[in-house]
Structures are given as structure tokens and as C-alpha cells.
Amino acid sequence: MTRTTIAIMVILLAMVSLAGTLSAQSQLRDEPAVRDGIIYVGMAYEIAEKCDSIRARTFRGLTYLQSLRATARDLGYSQAAIDAYIDDSAEKRRLEDIARAQLAALGAATDDPASYCAVGQAQIAANTRVGWLLR
């Protein structure tokens, strides 16, 4: 093989590798370890906002969010891809809608703050990830 052929092969391999990386990075929203964690934080936040007797464990929540960022990095996502995902307004609304739907499925009603308290207490008692983020 000539040097030109080898150079072209190296460039093509690099392009294929880069394309695979970019494709994977665009799918961060489909990583359950990250996506579900963000939803759990959103659920805990919503409960703490609606129920006066339950508080969010702020430090624990921030630490957990940092661990989700580390998980994304461990999965091979670049810092730029992670930041883009975090800053995506449409994705934020989508995840908030999922969190609210899950709360509703657990019995929380937007017009009934006591229902958020009941859901929050049940999550704390069951020691779920959402409950772990509350006190």
C-alpha cells in the first residue's frame, strides 16, 4: 500500500470513529442511568415544592446530579455533549412532563398538595431514589 492509501484509510477510520461518537452523544437522552436519575430529582423537587412538610435534601440532590454527570462521562459522552443535554430546554420540559406523569401515577394531584405529601411519605418509607432525596 502506498502512503496515500494508508493516509486515506486512517482518515476514514477516524471519521467513522468520530461519527459513532457524535451519534452516541446525541443519544444521551436515551441513557436510562442518566435520564431516570434526572427524573427522580425532578420528582423529589416537585414533591418538596408542593408539600410543606417535606423538604428536599439539597446537598444530596446536588451530589447525585454530579454523579449522573460522571456516569455520562463514564459512558463515553463528552463534556460538550453533557452540557448540551443539560441546556436543552425542550429536553428539560420533556423530563419535567415525565416526572409529573409519574407523580400523577403515584397519586399526586396538582390541585391537592396533601396528595404530594402522601406520595412523598410513601417514597421516603419505601426508600426509593425519590424518597432518598427527601426528608
How would you sum up this structure, described in words?
- This protein is mainly alpha-helical.
- It has one domain (3-132).
- 76% of the residues lie in helices and 0% in strands.
- The protein is built from seven helices and no strands.
- The chain has helices at 3-25, 32-50, 58-74, 79-87, 89-106, 113-125, 129-132.
- The protein starts with a helix and ends with a helix.
- The model is unreliable at 12-25 (pLDDT under 50).
- Keywords: Signal.
SSE blueprint:
Blueprint: H1 3-25, H2 32-50, H3 58-74, H4 79-87, H5 89-106, H6 113-125, H7 129-132
Count, helices? 7
Biggest beta-sheet profile = none
What order do the helices and strands follow?
HHHHHHH
Helix proportion: over 70%
The general outline is globular
The assigned structural class equals mainly alpha
Q: How far apart, in Å, are the first and last alpha carbons?
A: 67 Å
Count of domain modules: 1
- Provide the residue-averaged pLDDT: 86
Q: Strand-residue fraction? A: under 5%
Instruction: Please state the CA-atom Rg, rounded to the nearest Å.
Output: 20 Å
Unreliable stretches (pLDDT < 50, length at least 5) are: 12-25
Number of strands: 0
Protein name: NADH dehydrogenase subunit E
Organism: Yoonia vestfoldensis SKA53
Pfam families: DUF5333
Keywords: Signal
